[in-house]
């Protein structure tokens, strides 16, 4: 029997780190501040000079914060401060009536029929990815993080504004966002200790420059379409089937107003950055996991060869790719792109036996909940087959675990608007790759997960890429 693969992750410390040690460790990665009890507890608390932080792991409490009383636990203001230079006042950072209006205007772009409609554009980006990978010498090392970032950004760009992403643009976005991510915890950490004034001005400047670089690309892509739509609102657009066309047409039923230009840039920045970054993270980790599970990789190849037609524009066939979807589901469980969801108590309340003051930080962590020792069987093991049945040793039946302890897309009214989009995209990309290529680990290379805005590998994910003889069409 093949030994199950348990991927490397930052091993938790035996005891809770001191505040002084936490200050320096969390500046690199949120994962470095976790300790062993974090993976067992139902609820924990940390009190720092600038913040009261309550970590919620118990499913009933998670549901209360994210679903039943979501309005009482809005998005954290500190998160908004960190992301506003990049995402502006988008649905990722706003709260209350502003968020409700924006979300209502955004929802039509991500209805099921619309997602199916853009599948052909996704498929074009997937084929472009295959063409790029075929240029890699057979068996050579390749950083799949950069490749997955390219294809995910290409898909987002094709489906939003009907343009492919060239290599220059892909690397520019990847490098700018990597800089922004690396700086984010460093700029947020002083506020945890009441030292907001301690943020180094040169790091603030570098962060804002990276955000401005990305937003300038979006302005370049969107401004002509926005101007055309407002000059001739009744004219049919050549790109009327893409997501931007829907965003340009949508109107508030009360005011009759649509998105202004800056507000539209904010929303597209959110879709582009959050959409491609989270998908790229999850797909990269999925390939890393498959490279270390050759038997599963062969089963995935067989499924793709049998059930997946790369030339078809019918997205409904993806529903038959059971193993493919379970591989992605398991990659999201082990490496959720957004590992920590920060909320803020609008008023004082009680959670379990703890009195929570107003404006305290309440954190729901998919990273911890999806590896929780009391909620999952073999929580650190890569096992896509776990979703096909109930293991007798499981703390919860798998269906209950999925319902209560699985939230890579969040939960409740603020569940990720692009969840269906991401799952369709992932099934397509993984099936395409499994059909055409085989991946092997690079000896001596161990990706090091770091938790910043998303969970990425600090040192990249390098794999050896082999073309399959039976993958050619």
Keywords:
473 residues; alpha+beta; Cytochrome p450; 4-stranded mixed sheet; 3-stranded antiparallel sheet; 16 helices; 48% helix; globular
List the helices and strands and how they pair.
Layout: H1 19-25, E1 43-48, E2 51-56, H2 59-68, H3 77-87, H4 96-106, H5 112-117, H6 119-133, E3 140-143, H7 144-161, H8 167-192, H9 201-231, H10 243-249, H11 261-291, H12 294-307, H13 322-334, E4 341-344, E5 349-351, E6 354-356, E7 361-364, H14 366-369, H15 398-404, H16 419-436, E8 437-441, E9 449-451, E10 455-457, E11 462-467
Mean pLDDT: 86
The shape is: globular
Tally of alpha and pi helices: 16
Low-confidence stretches: none
CATH C-level: Mainly Alpha
Describe the structure.
With 473 residues, the chain is of the alpha+beta class. It has one domain: Cytochrome p450 (Orthogonal Bundle), CATH 1.10.630. The protein is built from 16 helices and eleven strands. It has helices at residues 19-25, 59-68, 77-87, 96-106, 112-117, 119-133, 144-161, 167-192, 201-231, 243-249, 261-291, 294-307, 322-334, 366-369, 398-404, 419-436, and strands at residues 43-48, 51-56, 140-143, 341-344, 349-351, 354-356, 361-364, 437-441, 449-451, 455-457, 462-467. The strands form four sheets. A four-stranded mixed beta sheet has the order 1-2-7-4. The longest helix is centred in the middle third of the chain and has 31 residues, at 201-231. The model has no long low-confidence stretch (mean pLDDT 86).
């Amino acid at each position: 029997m093949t030994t199950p693969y348990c991927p490397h992750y930052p091993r938790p410390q035996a005891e809770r780190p001191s505040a002084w040690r936490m200050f320096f460790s969390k500046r690199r990665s949120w994962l470095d501040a976790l300790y062993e009890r974090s993976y067992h507890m139902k609820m924990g608390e940390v009190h720092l000079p600038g913040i009261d932080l309550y970590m919620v792991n118990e499913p009933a409490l998670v549901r209360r914060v994210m679903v039943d009383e979501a309005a009482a636990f809005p998005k954290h203001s500190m998160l908004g401060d960190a992301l506003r230079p990049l995402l502006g006042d988008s649905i990722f950072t706003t709260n209350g009536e502003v968020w409700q209006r924006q979300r209502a205007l955004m929802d039509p772009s991500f209805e099921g029929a619309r997602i199916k409609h853009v599948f052909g554009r996704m498929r074009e980006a997937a084929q472009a990815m295959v063409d790029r990978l075929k240029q890699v010498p057979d068996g050579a090392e390749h950083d799949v993080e950069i490749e997955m970032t390219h294809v995910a950004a290409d898909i987002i760009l094709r489906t939003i504004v009907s343009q492919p992403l060239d290599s220059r643009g892909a690397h520019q976005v990847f490098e700018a966002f990597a800089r922004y991510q690396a700086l984010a915890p460093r700029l947020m950490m002083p506020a945890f200790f009441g030292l907001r004034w301690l943020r180094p001005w040169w790091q603030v400047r570098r962060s804002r420059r990276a955000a401005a670089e990305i937003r300038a690309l979006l302005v370049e892509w969107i401004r002509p379409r926005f101007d055309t739509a407002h000059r001739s609102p009744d004219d049919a657009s050549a790109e009327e089937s893409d997501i931007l066309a829907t965003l340009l047409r949508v109107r508030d039923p009360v005011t009759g107003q649509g998105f202004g230009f800056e507000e539209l840039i904010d929303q597209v920045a959110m879709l582009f950055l959050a959409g491609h970054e989270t998908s790229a993270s999850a797909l990269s980790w999925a390939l890393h996991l498959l490279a270390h599970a050759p038997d599963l990789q062969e089963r995935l190849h067989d499924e793709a060869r049998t059930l997946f037609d790369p030339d078809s524009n019918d997205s409904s066939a993806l529903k038959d790719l059971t193993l493919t979807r379970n591989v992605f589901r398991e990659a999201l469980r082990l490496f959720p792109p957004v590992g920590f969801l920060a909320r803020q108590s609008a008023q004082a309340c009680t959670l379990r036996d703890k009195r929570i003051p107003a404006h305290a930080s309440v954190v729901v962590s998919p990273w911890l909940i999806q590896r929780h020792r009391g909620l999952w069987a073999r929580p650190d093991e890569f096992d896509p087959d776990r979703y096909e049945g109930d293991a007798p040793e499981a703390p919860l039946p798998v269906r209950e675990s999925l319902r209560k302890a699985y939230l890579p897309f969040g939960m409740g009214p603020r569940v990720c608007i692009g969840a269906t989009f991401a799952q369709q995209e992932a099934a397509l990309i993984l099936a395409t790759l499994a059909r055409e290529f085989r991946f092997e680990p690079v000896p001596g290379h161990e990706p090091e997960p770091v938790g910043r805005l998303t969970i990425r590998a600090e040192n990249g994910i390098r794999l050896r890429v082999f073309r399959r003889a039976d993958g050619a069409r």
